[in-house]
Amino acid sequence: xxxxxxxGGGLVQAxxxxxxxxxxxxxxxxxxxxxxxxxxxxxxxxxxxxIASVGNTMYADSxxxxxxxxxxxxxxxxxxxxxxxxxxxxxVYYCKEYDDWGQGTQVNVSS
Length: 111
Fold this sequence. Notes:
four-stranded antiparallel β-sheet; 0% helix; 53% strand
């Protein structure tokens, strides 16, 4: 079955950087679009970034210019490179493939 395992979250000061990873298995990774979502306390889950199988990307306006999504098909892994982090980026970050979700990784940005 599909398995998505996120890692790389943690505590960082505002202005800092983190790289999240999502290791995927159970499907043909190279032909599937992959996404990162996040959910802050008391808020709805929102799309952060999406990458198509051929590499086209799309970002939420709130992270454009600061976050970069990438994929390594040989490793069946999708990444989220987060720079210039802000306290409002604090959330649980989830990896998504169609209807399947990972367990999430917590990102905390202190001011």
